[in-house]
Specification:
membrane, four-stranded mixed beta sheet, Glutaredoxin, alpha+beta, Thioredoxin, protein-disulfide reductase activity, about 130 residues, transmembrane helix
Length: about 130
């Protein structure tokens, strides 16, 4: 019985340790230059304006609530990008995305925000609004 409890405790500790590591690593990316990309992603970064990259996966449960919000913005906003990592792993790797959902806000070619995990709709909408204009 003690071995089972110890194993469960270690697994829980490892899970939270990995979560903390991911968040810590993403915070280190803030203030760094955005990766050099080609196509519309690269163009948005090179224009020195604000661009938002939302990384998701179709199998991600947490992404299911955020993806419809982003979809509304990507239709009418050339600086807001929805990146399906199952189809475009190269872009996710370039940014250093380790999990979904992840949101990266790039301003003047610099990573201003790097958020891992779901956000409430109101906070997420505020990030999206920064790409207008």
């Amino acid at each position: 019985m003690n071995n089972i409890l110890m194993t469960v405790f270690i697994l829980i500790l490892a899970f939270f340790g990995f979560q903390y590591f991911m968040v810590f690593k993403m915070k280190l990316k803030k203030g760094k230059s955005a990766p050099e990309l080609s196509g519309p992603y690269g163009k948005a970064i090179k224009n020195k304006k604000t661009a938002l990259f939302y990384f998701y996966s179709p199998s991600c449960g947490a992404c299911k609530s955020m993806t419809p919000i982003v979809s509304g913005y990507t239709k009418n906003n050339s600086r807001c990008f929805k990146v399906d990592i199952s189809k475009d792993m190269e872009t996710a790797r370039a940014f250093g995305v380790m999990g979904t959902p992840s949101t990266v806000l790039v301003e003047d070619g610099i990573i201003k925000e790097f958020i891992v995990g779901p956000k409430p709709a109101s906070e997420f909408t505020q990030l999206l609004e920064q790409t207008r204009g």
